[in-house]
Amino acid sequence: MNLVLFGPPGAGKGTQAKVITEQRGLPQLSTGEMLRAAIAAGTELGKASKAIMDRGDLVSDDIVVGIIGERYDQPDCAKGAVFDGFPRTIPQAEALDAMLAKRGRKIDLVIELKVDDKILIDRVEQRIKESGGTTRSDDTPETLKARLAVYYKNTAPLLEYYKHQGKVVTVDGMKPIVEVTRQIGAAIDAKARH
Ligand code: AMP
Fold this sequence. Notes:
The protein has one domain (3-193): Rossmann fold, CATH 3.40.50. Helix content is 59%, strand content 12%. The protein has nine helices and five strands. It has helices spanning 13-24, 31-41, 44-55, 61-72, 90-102, 117-131, 141-155, 158-164, 177-193; strands at 2-6, 28-30, 81-84, 109-114, 168-172. A five-stranded parallel sheet has the order 2-3-1-4-5, with helices on both faces. The site of adenosine monophosphate has 18 residues, from helix 2 and helix 3.
């Protein structure tokens, strides 16, 4: 199964993707984590991406489509994957559909995690406090505002793209983590049954 976890920054996509990976063995494909790994490794890709990410802007479609395509061809994706933070634009979603179609596959399910802005800001402030400000240089209240604006402008319209394909299940991301996990699990099981 190929699954997209969809939602604004701080919605809990990463947390839930990790649970799905643990419970179902589908690898988490997070472009944000791949880009942070490239920055940590000091690669050309990392150097080119850091300033863009620190501003809260999007890295170019070509770059993220390229890294996802490479990652998806690894053997652990044989049964599918959980896409986390990708796609973030319509061209990325179209490229993903084309990439999967070439391999005789498709996106089966898009889980939308719905969370109010106010709660997103509280969550990211909490994440900053807990990490002592060390783990993510784009986790600042200012960058979060930029990332939210980018989300509403570039990414939120994607929901219509997937609704049009009849693939979206919406989950209340403000419920406790275990409840969100349970609802996502139910949506995956329902999809797997038919
Ligand atoms: P994330 O960890 O998903 O919040 O991503 C962190 C940052 O990485 C984003 O704010 C973007 O700058 C960049 N990024 C991650 N995924 C994408 C994507 N699919 N398209 C463009 N930029 C991305």
